[in-house]
Amino acid sequence: ANRKLLLLPGDGIGPEAMGEVRHIIAHMNEAEGAGFEIDEGLVGGAAYDAHGESISDADMEKALAADAVLFGAVGGPKWDDVPYEQRPEAGLLRLRKDLALFANLRPAICYPALADSSSLRKDVVEGLDILILRELTGGVYFGEPKEIIDLGNGQKRGIDTQVYDTYEIERIAAMAFELARTRDNRVCSMEKRNVMKSGVLWNEVVTATHKKGYEDVELTHMLADAGGMQLVRWPKQFDVIVTDNLFGDMLSDVAAMLTGSLGMLPSASLGAPDETTGKRKALYEPVHGSAPDIAGTGAANPIAMIASFAMCMRYSFEMIAEADRLEAAIAKVLDDGLRTGDIMSDGMTKVGTTEMGAAVLEAYKAS
Ligand code: NAI
Ligand code: MG
Q1: How many angstroms separate the alpha carbon of residue 291 from the centre of ligand 1?
Q2: How far is CA 313 from CA 68, 143, 183, 293, 337, in A?
Q3: Are 141 and 202 in a shared domain?
Q4: Which residues are annotated as part of the binding site for NAD(+)?
Q5: Are residues 251 and 285 in the same domain?
Q6: What is the ipTM of this complex?
Q7: pLDDT for 103-149, tens place per residue?
Q8: CA 110, CA 129: separation in Å to the nearest integer?
């Protein structure tokens, strides 16, 4: 197989975590003939230092040509004063925009070994495995008009507009049903149809899409505020949650806190299938940032990055068995008591980035 992967390690702990994924890829290429073809690029502060912009056109071309992009993290105090258009985050925003990544997948998985470190009661989160699917390119973050108007009487008016068109809701709903089929076959759609017209349309279109060939999947609807409450009360009731950009932003951060550390959380962003090849553009990244407070100390938890690579195998390369094995390897090292500083607790064995990465690789090899 010829699997084109672009690595964009970025800044801070991004390159450190990515290093552990490189070892896994090298092993899979050598021992399993996985056929990953690796290309490299710069993004964020690293790209700004090299080219004066947060991602170069040449690296954007590479991203467009790749089957999938693996992204580390960007940003840090060093670039606090660079021009706004070239701030490190701009590189990530350009990638999302130019690759037209309209769907953001945020799994919230609570490994049994870490159930004690959640902010919730152990029985509420132990074994939790849900997926929040957030619409990423529409809604109130992008809708027009978007402005601050001076009303002239010492008052100003800030305006953001929630806009969704049928096609935008249809494609994210269809993706939710397809993802559910690979899991527990249940989708809960969340909006606020009681107070928002876009919520009424969201509800209608999700329901209509369900009737177009997805009726084998269980569909329920919940008001997004009640959904937030249920997510904290009894999150295991959910399988896939599909929701808009704003609610998805908030609900996925709430769900993140059910599972323990930022250092554990992967994500994927997917685009529409290509008309000729059927392949989706895709970017995989940990949820965490560049963690300047621990960068360079070798303390970063590489699991979020490694789990992002597992998602990459699952969703971009249909390497389901390998993805399952890699996720099981993560669970195994946690069961064995290995912990980086961010997830450390009494009686466990404290390790650094490279030891954690090596242990996951060993567990993968042994599986
Ligand atoms: P952060 O996620 O980088 O760090 C928050 C806290 O979590 C820190 O104490 C950090 O040490 C810890 N942490 C995060 N990931 C960890 C890991 N893998 N292992 C162990 N500990 C970990 O968020 P923060 O501090 O708000 O932002 C730092 C920089 O990262 C800023 O420049 C920010 O703009 C950028 N950022 C970039 C993101 C991205 O590249 N997608 C996302 C979030 C922030
Ligand atoms: Mg957020």
Answers
A1: 4
A2: 9, 33, 16, 31, 26
A3: yes
A4: 76-89, 289-301
A5: no
A6: 0.98
A7: 999 999 998 888 887 777 889 998 899 999 999 999 999 999 999 99
A8: 7
Once rounded to an integer, what is the mean pLDDT over residues 42-68?
97
DSSP of 107-129, one letter per residue? EEE--GGGGGGSSS-HHHHTT-E
- Cα 75 to middle of ligand 1, angstroms: 9
> Is 87 close to ligand 1, i.e. is its CB under 6 Å away?
no
If one counts the domains in the chain, the total is: 2
Is-above-0.80 flag for pTM? Answer: yes
| Cβ atoms of 150 and 156 closer than 8 Å | yes
Do residues 36 and 5 lie in contact, with contact meaning Cβ atoms separated by under 8 Å? yes
Q: How far, in Å, are 12, 211, 215, 245, 262 from residue 164 at the CA level?
A: 36, 20, 24, 10, 30
Q: List residues with catalytic annotation.
A: 141, 192, 225, 249, 253
Alpha-carbon gap, residue 257 to 235, rounded angstroms: 12
Q: Which amino acid is at 344?
A: M
Residue 232 tokens read as: 């904290």
Helix ranges, the chain (H) = 13-32, 45-51, 57-65, 88-98, 122-125, 166-181, 197-211, 224-233, 245-256, 303-316, 320-335, 353-365
**What's the 295 CA to ligand 1 centre distance in angstroms?**
10
Q: Is 256 helix (H, G, I), strand (E, B) or coil?
A: helix
Alpha helices (runs of H) in 212-352, residue ranges in sequence order: 224-233, 245-256, 303-316, 320-335
Same domain for 226 and 307, yes or no, is no
**CA 41 → CA 63, 180, 268, 295, 338, distances in Å?**
9, 33, 19, 20, 32
* Domain enclosing residue 286, as ranges: 1-107+259-367
214, 234, 257 - which closes a domain? 257
